[in-house]
Amino acid sequence: MKLSYLDTSAAMKLLVAEPESVALAKSLSSDRRLASAWLLHTELHSAAGRHPDDIASADVQTVLNTLHLADLTRGDMIAAGTHAPLRSHDAIHLAVAIRLGVDEIVTYDNELAESATAAGLVVFAPASQLSPETTSHFAKLHRSCWRRSRHDARFAQQHLIN
Prior knowledge:
The protein is of the alpha/beta class. The protein has one domain (about 1-160): 3-Layer(aba) Sandwich (Rossmann fold). It is about 45% helix and about 10% strand. It has helices at about 10-15, 20-30, 40-50, 55-65, 75-80, 90-100, 110-120, 135-140, 155-160; strands at about 1-5, 30-35, 70, 105, 125. It has a five-stranded parallel β-sheet. Helix 7 links the parallel strand 4 (about 105) and strand 5 (about 125). The longest helix is centred in the N-terminal third of the chain and has 13 residues, at about 40-50.
């Protein structure tokens, strides 16, 4: 069984319907244990608060209930500081994924995918498309996507949880 780390770009696809949502939900339902940092809890609830017509808090909790949420440590924060030029939240996700020793990181964020690959992690992004900038070296190694996402938990309820 694989240990898969979900970042926010992937988790949001389980809350709002996007082209990759069904493929992601189906892929995560098979032979994977799912993990993330408690940071994801904050990010998803913040997104629901900013977009209450699009993201229900109950759906956020449904997605979070499928994951093991790892506490952030001082070491995670120090390690995240070494992952420049990533945005701080992506650097924290990468640091926690490395500390947990995950088998793969599930992300649709191009910058995080590149940094994860450089750190030796496998990147998993079902139904994704590669950005032209990373095709030369990244496409040969792993699948990823170039854009951030928004979300809909019906996919999690239909495919991931059941």
